[in-house]
């Protein structure tokens, strides 16, 4: 079964400093048909005005990944995690048994554009944690690179779930394949640019999900700009 989630069907929240698109139900946006996808619970595409952001607030028992597309995002948490996240970097925060954190635009004059991703863990009430890693664009130009995994393989960030996150950058006509297995589920999120998936064009913000599929997909860059794509492999 293939699921379609077009960018323009997502929830939309706009305040004075935040413009946010919600792939799944979040906050005041509730859609019973889109409560998540397996343990993948949140993909919010956020644009935050210069100098603004999310003041300190709490989380528990959630794996939170932040992926910056443009600008810089400043992170600080109650367990000593601190840093500024820039394009090409991925940040993991394991909320564990409880953590307070803040996320602010690190620039006084330029917006920050990023994806906030929540994954439910397979173990609860563990100690909170934080890590941040830079991934060289050359390592994923025209091929998949492992960004997050259960065991931190190949320099990826370790997360507390039997799930992986791969990323690829595709220029025009550059291609990667995805082999789907029926004992796993898959979610493809287009972060930037355009990509052709077995003949279907997806643009930034569009997504596809697969459940109970056994096939090989072909993904190809389909625009003048680099397509930045994220692939989640999740428990069935």
Automatic annotation (TrEMBL):
One of its GO terms (molecular function) is metal ion binding. Residues 10-119 form the Pirin N-terminal domain. Its cofactor is Fe cation. Fe cation binds at residues 57, 59, 101, 103. InterPro entries: Pirin (IPR012093), Pirin_N_dom (IPR003829), Quercetinase_C (IPR041602), RmlC-like_jellyroll (IPR014710), RmlC_Cupin_sf (IPR011051). Coiled coil: none annotated. The keyword Iron applies. It comes from the Bacteria. Binds 1 Fe cation per subunit. Residues 146-234 form the Quercetin 2,3-dioxygenase C-terminal cupin domain. Pfam families: Pirin, Pirin_C_2. Keywords: Iron, Metal-binding. Belongs to the pirin family. PANTHER family: QUERCETIN 2,3-DIOXYGENASE (PTHR43212). This is Pirin family protein.
């Amino acid at each position: 079964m293939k699921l379609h989630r077009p960018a323009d069907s997502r929830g939309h929240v706009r305040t004075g400093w935040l413009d946010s698109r919600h792939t799944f139900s979040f906050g005041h946006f509730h859609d019973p048909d889109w409560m998540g996808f397996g343990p993948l619970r949140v993909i919010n595409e956020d644009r935050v005005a210069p100098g603004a952001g999310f003041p300190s607030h709490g989380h528990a028992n959630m794996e939170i990944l932040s992926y910056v597309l443009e600008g810089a995002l400043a992170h600080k948490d109650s367990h000593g995690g601190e840093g500024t996240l820039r394009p090409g970097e991925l940040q993991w925060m394991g909320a564990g048994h409880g953590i307070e954190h803040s996320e602010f635009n690190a620039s006084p004059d330029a917006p920050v554009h990023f994806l906030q991703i929540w994954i439910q863990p397979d173990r609860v009430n563990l100690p909170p944690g934080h890590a941040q890693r830079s991934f060289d664009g050359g390592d994923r130009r025209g091929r998949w690179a492992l960004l997050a995994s259960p065991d931190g393989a190949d320099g990826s960030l370790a997360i507390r779930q039997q799930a992986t996150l791969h990323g690829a950058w595709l220029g025009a006509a550059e291609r990667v394949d995805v082999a789907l297995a029926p004992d796993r589920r898959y979610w493809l999120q287009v972060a930037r640019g355009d990509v052709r998936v077995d003949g279907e064009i997806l643009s930034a913000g569009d997504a596809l999900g697969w459940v109970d599929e056994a096939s090989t997909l072909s993904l190809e860059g389909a625009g003048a700009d680099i397509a930045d794509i994220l692939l989640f492999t999740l428990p069935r």
